[in-house]
Write a structure and sequence with these properties.
The complex is a heterodimer of chains A (87) and B (229).
Chain A lengths: L1 H6 L2 E7 L13 E3 L12 E3 L10 H15 L3 E2 L7 E2 L1
Chain B lengths: L1 E4 L2 H15 L1 E6 L2 E2 L2 E6 L2 E5 L1 H10 L29 H14 L7 H7 L8 H16 L4 E5 L6 E8 L10 E8 L2 E9 L7 H25 L5
Antiparallel strand pairs in B: 3-4, 4-5, 5-6, 7-8, 8-9
The chains are: A alpha+beta (87), B alpha+beta (229).
């Protein structure tokens, strides 16, 4: 931010809606049928197709998704600060 | 997520790409990010945590207390050997946690917060009084923060020092450094050294080494930002 001040860079912020729902899952995760949904069979559980809030790997999967997308767009990930991407 | 750069078109392009992939909410100019308030002025950027500080002070009832000019009483030596432990230790721990987050924009309380956080397991009324002292200090100037002037040079500067064998219980030394990019403070630390130094020159070398590591890290970061200091 000190650099942004001297170089007169723009500073913008954005919010990714429901970011944790965008992550992909590598393993099979099942959950109980949520309340309010009537299962078609008496004993039924749900298999998750995407990441969901509350999962332990949710934040990691979102980070992985975002970094892959940014790198695909031609950005370079900083080696000294993994949450910094430059182009 | 924060975006920055000198090309408005490319930022807009990235935003539309991200919106296409993930659905984003554009919040425009950076103003409030994880409790940090950012104000852009013609002369530079101002950064503080005023709202966070006021909310922190709201939780503890400080109405009857006067604000204080300093965060710590130099006469009081804190130690962990007192016997009367605090009954409600959670308040103390929570306050320390909140103060640690506040050190993001308040290097002036960094030393005392670091010092107090060493007594989390055996905190007494004396420690709690010391935390209240910090809060009273914050009450006097809740809006203090950083100013990054726009006319500053992109040059790394380092100041570091140490207090030899200042920890009364372990006789270890305490390091500290402040790194500036031109006139803007960008990195600082106050930390107890890991080993005992028998000479003050030995401790000085350790302080120098840890400052050098930080300079190295910052120079890598600047290189990644395509800035040549």
């Amino acid at each position: 931010m000190a650099i942004a001040a001297t170089e007169n860079w723009l500073l913008e912020q954005l919010y990714v809606k429901n970011a944790f729902l965008d992550g992909d899952l590598h393993e099979e995760v099942y959950m109980k049928v949520p309340k309010g949904v009537v299962p078609q069979k008496p004993v039924q559980i749900c298999k998750l197709r995407k990441s969901i809030y509350g999962l332990r790997q949710a934040s990691r999967q979102w980070y992985e998704k975002l970094s892959t997308v940014l790198i695909a767009l031609g950005y370079t990930q900083s080696q000294s600060d993994f949450s910094l991407f430059t182009k | 997520m924060i975006l920055t750069g000198n090309d408005a078109q490319k930022i807009a392009l990235l935003k539309s790409l991200l919106d296409h992939l993930f659905k984003i909410k554009d919040l425009g100019q950076l103003k409030f990010f994880l409790g940090l308030e950012v104000t852009r002025l013609r002369k530079g950027i101002f950064l503080n945590q005023r709202k966070y500080t006021l909310e922190l002070l709201d939780v503890v009832d400080l109405l009857g207390f006067k604000s204080s000019n300093t965060p710590m009483d130099p006469q009081i030596k804190l130690n962990s050997k007192e016997s009367h432990l605090l009954e409600d230790i959670f308040i103390f721990r929570r306050l320390i946690g909140q103060l640690i987050y506040l050190t993001n924009t308040r290097p002036d309380i960094h030393f005392v917060v670091n010092h107090l956080s060493q007594f989390l397991s055996a905190s007494t009324m004396t420690h709690y009084q010391a935390v209240l002292r910090v809060l009273r200090y914050l009450k006097g100037n809740p809006g203090w923060g950083f100013f990054f002037p726009s006319d500053s040079l992109l040059q790394l500067k380092d100041f570091h020092d140490l207090d030899w064998a200042s920890c009364l219980e372990t006789y270890r030394s305490v390091n500290s450094f402040c790194m500036f990019l031109g006139d803007s403070l960008i990195s600082w630390r106050s930390k107890k050294q890991h080993t005992i130094s028998r000479f003050s020159s030995e401790a000085e070398y350790r302080a120098l080494a840890s400052a050098t590591c930080e300079i190295q890290r910052l120079s890598y970061l600047l290189r990644d930002l395509h800035i040549v200091p």
